[in-house]
Design brief:
The protein has 134 residues and is mostly beta strands. It starts with a strand and ends with a helix. It is elongated and about 55 Å long. Strand 4 and strand 5 form a beta hairpin. The chain has two helices and seven strands, in the order E-E-E-H-E-E-E-E-H.
Length: 134
């Protein structure tokens, strides 16, 4: 099986369809919707034993090495792994929002600036309501 590596319009690693023109994002693989004209993005070959059946360039293995997420979900500001390994400071750009220990595990210690001073506690120390500026 060829790797089918291509670059998406967002410049991320993608899956090259059989037509050798269409490049789809990893999250469009095995999602129940046919994105490649021949349907190979939903085929048993690629979707039969997730994540093992996917090309490795489309998969991010989480810190526990048991869980995984699609590569284009890495560094998107959401905790897909449950342990924040897909949002690690070692792998991702610095927090562009407000950095703090968050109340919600989905935030991985970085909340969007839009949630500063919104009268909803996002940081355990309330710094998002006291110190953060939009």
């Amino acid at each position: 099986m060829s790797t089918r590596l291509c670059k998406t319009t967002l410049n991320t690693n993608g899956f090259l369809c059989d037509d050798r023109k269409t490049c789809i994002m990893s999250t469009h693989m095995c999602n129940g919707k046919i994105d490649c004209s021949n349907g190979e993005d939903e085929s048993n070959l690629h979707c039969g034993d997730l994540p093992n059946s996917l090309p490795t360039h489309l998969v991010f293995m989480c810190g526990n090495q048991k869980s995984w997420t699609y590569i284009d979900e890495k560094c998107d500001g959401k905790n897909h792994c449950g342990d924040c390994s897909d949002e690690s400071e070692l792998l991702c750009p610095a927090c562009s929002g407000w950095k703090c220990v968050t109340v919600f595990f989905t935030d991985c210690d970085c909340i969007p600036k839009s949630r500063c001073r919104d009268n909803i506690q996002d940081c355990t120390d309330m710094s998002d309501e006291k110190n953060c500026t939009k």
